[in-house]
Design goal:
With 197 residues, this protein is an alpha/beta fold. The chain is built from ten helices and six strands, in the order H-H-E-E-H-H-E-H-E-H-H-E-E-H-H-H. Strands 1-3-2-4-6-5 form a six-stranded mixed beta sheet, sandwiched between helices. A hairpin with a 4-residue loop joins strand 5 and strand 6.
């Protein structure tokens, strides 16, 4: 592991410790087993952002470990990537009770930490999985219209390409969405090439 990796690991660990220390969303924390911060390559070119941990994620402390995670792994495999090549996280870092959607307030509370995560990793592409993680970057936009359409997001610190996708969980329950998600996902290598050229 290179020096940059170690520095990034330490920075990310600090952010995770701050979430716990500052008692972010204490009601959520009280109902969860543990913080689910993120997982993968801290030097990744691509960061995937989901919505919030579910039961499996709460048990393991890792994002996307259930059925949606298996589908995400399959899609990564289909474009020649592995989980260890990318970084995966969620906007909300504790499991909401009964897997309900994260609330506006919960997303708002965790956003600064997510943005700092992105600042540390400094990806070239951010892929949002589902409308909850897309909303912050593209407020007022419907995922049905935005999915698969790359956007450039300019932040004070840096800019990156944003690719909004449907959530893998939604595609598990809707066969039509599954093919759309697979098609959108297949664009990632080409888009990454464009960024790197």
């Amino acid at each position: 592991m290179g020096k940059v990796c170690v520095i990034k690991q330490v920075e990310l660990q600090k952010i995770a410790e701050e979430i716990v220390g500052e008692d972010v969303c204490s009601e959520l924390r009280d109902g969860a087993t543990q913080l689910v911060f993120g997982d993968g390559d801290v030097n990744a070119e691509i960061v995937f952002i989901g919505e919030a941990p579910g039961k499996k994620e709460d048990e393991t402390g890792l994002p996307f470990m259930g059925a949606a995670g298996r589908f995400l792994n399959e899609m990564l495999d289909s474009i020649g990537l592995d989980r260890k090549d990318v970084y995966i996280t969620n906007i909300v870092k504790y499991r909401p009770p009964k897997n309900r959607d994260p609330s506006k307030e919960e997303k708002k509370a965790f956003l600064p930490y997510l943005m700092r995560q992105l600042d540390v990793i400094a990806p070239k592409m951010v892929v949002t999985l589902g409308r909850h993680s897309m909303e912050y970057f593209l407020p007022g936009v419907k995922i049905g219209e935005a999915h698969g359409q790359p956007q450039t997001i300019n932040m004070p610190e840096r800019s990156w390409m944003l690719l909004p996708l449907f959530h893998p969980a939604a595609a598990l329950y809707n066969g039509g969405l599954r093919q759309i998600l697979l098609d959108d996902f297949a664009r990632i290598p080409t888009l990454l090439k464009q960024i790197n050229s």
